[in-house]
Amino acid sequence: MADLTQLALAGAAIAGLLFLLIRRLYPKPLPGIPYNEASAHRLMGDIPDWFPLIKQTHEFSDSMLNITTRKLGTPIAQLLFPNIRKPLVVVDDAREIEDILVRRGKEFDKAPTALGLFGPMFPRATLSQYTTPALKAQKRLWADVMSPDFLKRVAAPNIHKATCELLDLWRLKAEGPGTALLNVIDDFRNAALDAIWVAVVGEEPGTMRYEIQKLRHQLSGSDRPFDQKPPVGEFLKEQVHYIGEAVARSSNSVSPELAQRVETWTPRYRRFRSVVSGEMRRAMRSAVERFQHLETERLEDDAAVDTCAMDLVLRRQILQARKAGVAPSDPTKDEAMLDEMFVMLVGGHDSTGNTLSWFVRFMEMYPSVQSTLRAILRSKFPGPDLPSAQAILDADIPYLDGVCEEGMRLSGTAKANLRQAIVDTRILGCPVPKGTEIFFNFHTDRETPHVDEAVRSESSRAAAEKKWNSVGAEHAWRDLGTFEPRRWIERDKSGKEVFNAYALPSLAFGGGYRGCFGRKLAMLEFKIVVVLLIMSFEFLPLPDEYRPMSSVETVFRQPDFPYANIKVL
Ligand code: HEM
Ligand SMILES: *[C@@H]1O[C@H](CO)[C@@H](O)[C@H](O)[C@H]1NC(C)=O
């Protein structure tokens, strides 16, 4: 009898302990921030609502917004997890997000979760670092690579060239003056890879040209096998593609950081590193060779010598060493430099390829925008040749600028990003403790709940009063789901149409000190490609089965149907 009692008591004690333990694992909402009541009363928090929706829609970020801010009808909310992970604060208000990114940098930094995705593979890249003095020095070294002058002189002509090759390829695919239904995403990615590699490393990978030769051979009906030796771009493409896939795979796992760490131990990752860094080191050696023979005076003359971003940075380092009277360090052993270049390749070509794929879908959906833009471009650039990069960048065409902004805004390629609060602070009136991770929606594609001016931050209110950027123009906020370039256009005092870059907060590239490093390059590239595409092809309606605008989101959002039905003009 006594034994049974003891057993029962022990059982009850264990059950009690288990009960307490499980209670501890229940989500613990942060005080003062809206959340789903029901989720707070179940072990898995919001996950049972969230994961099935991701499975259904393949959209990670949109699903999160759907079950938090949108469901609750609030501009700020929290996503609840079992108590092994702190709640994630979700913010969906474009104006306040821009204010936080641009003006409240002292209160927020990169979030650990965001760094975890790239950190294991590229530990020394800026993308993987908190905002420290070392990071700031590294950013300074690279900053001028994105100066308008450098981009125009070095990047723009190469982008133009890669794009003209893309046009040739598509003309071939349409067999001369015909029409063709194309899957565009790989072509856009290849063209973007050609452009970014030559802009960063200074050598032409030749991917596009190789595609053209391959297709020509195929069309010629020759029985000889295609025996052209693949250019370096073919290997690079494969390597960069692998990284994109690996990061995408890891980003969907329970611990992206761990998944990425494991990936770095694989032979496949090591092959990537050795192939790509081998190419980079070779290019570095020849640049250093060139610079070491130059007089200091010549080395200081920016315009004279740089053919790519890498040149500029190497030259700076050689100059710094000379001035300090020390021997320059061996740049081929500089892991920070290699990591930075890797990230520019990987981050710079998928994002651009996806955004361009969305763009051609928008052109198909909005034929009147397409024809308006084409008419304006034809009157500005009567031809017969297509305009040069210089001509495109120098022209003042408000409607074109509006089209580019709309393309960036609506495609939501990089839908969201994270920050962490590095001090106790408030967002939209809600207390946000130090260490909290915050998810910001960068995709301004629909109306969000009204926010009382009184709960906005001081800097946000001051910006509104001074009519700085980010408050936007009233007409610009209408029908946010539609592609309307005119929302970015205003009339100046003389009645002339002018482009207003501040008509809406632009969040496609995040913002502030940790905003997208490649923003100016990406905008410049987008503009050149848009002009050349619209002047060369008409984008006809797609068959119904290709028309859904659904997408799959990994690191970037990619359309499920990246198709174009082109007619050669
Ligand atoms: C359409 C093209 C692109 C889009 C939509 C895009 C978007 C973004 C976004 C949203 C961020 C995060 C910013 C934030 O959290 O505030 C980012 C960061 C970054 N992007 Fe881009 N990007 C594009 C093209 C490029 C290109 C061409 C490059 C390279 C030259 C590049 C290099 C980077 C780097 C290095 C960072 C990290 C910056 C840091 O941590 O300080 N991006 N990008
Ligand atoms: C959430 O997503 C589902 C499925 O896509 C949709 O039917 C529903 O309207 C969305 N709810 C909100 C509040 O956005």
How would you briefly describe this protein structure?
By secondary structure, this protein is of the alpha+beta class. The protein has 23 helices and 14 strands.
Structure description:
Belongs to the cytochrome P450 family. This is Cytochrome P450 3A24. This protein has 569 residues and is an alpha+beta fold. It has 2 domains: 92 residues, no CATH class; 338 residues, Cytochrome P450 (Cytochrome p450). 54% of the residues lie in helices and 10% in strands. The protein contains 23 helices and 14 strands. It has a 5-stranded mixed β-sheet, with helices on both faces. A 3-stranded antiparallel β-sheet has the order 4-14-11. The protein is globular and about 95 Å long. The mean pLDDT is 91. Bound molecules: protoporphyrin IX containing FE and 2-acetamido-2-deoxy-beta-D-glucopyranose (NAG). 2-acetamido-2-deoxy-beta-D-glucopyranose binds next to helix 5.
